[in-house]
Amino acid sequence: MSPFFVMSLLFGLTFGRTASLCAPSEYIIHVEKRECAYCLAINTTICAGFCMTRDSNGKKLLLKSALSQNVCTYKEMLYQTALIPGCPHHTIPYYSYPVAVSCKCGKCNTDYSDCVHEKVRTNYCTKPQK
What we know:
The structure is a single chain. The protein is mainly beta. It has a domain at 18-106: Cystine Knot Cytokines, subunit B (Ribbon). 12% of the residues lie in helices and 35% in strands. The longest helix has 16 residues, at 3-18. The mean pLDDT is 78. This is Thyrotropin subunit beta. InterPro entries: Cystine-knot_cytokine, Glyco_hormone_CN, Gonadotropin_bsu, Gonadotropin_bsu_CS. Residues 21-125 form the Glycoprotein hormone subunit beta domain. Belongs to the glycoprotein hormones subunit beta family. Heterodimer of a common alpha chain and a unique beta chain which confers biological specificity to thyrotropin, lutropin, follitropin and gonadotropin.
């Protein structure tokens, strides 16, 4: 092998591991309650992007520690609360949502993340927006 090829391979492995494209990304959540008259569009940030994943066809030959299925997930987050307009007095008009401060590549934590992407779910309003 040529020295250039070896150096390129080492650089790619090193750089690819540290330079994932996982970062906070702008996202709009549409929130509505059955009892309320309006839908609220909330601008927030979520973690999105590419994380280096190692998966081999020879899974039975490798140790589990050699396999990695990382996802782009929250490193730091905070919660904010919004007021949904047009709610009657007997309804709680508040909605709390996460805001990604920073992100990391790691295992998906089901305590605070939806780890399954559902294709049939939509994010839109059925009521007028305010």
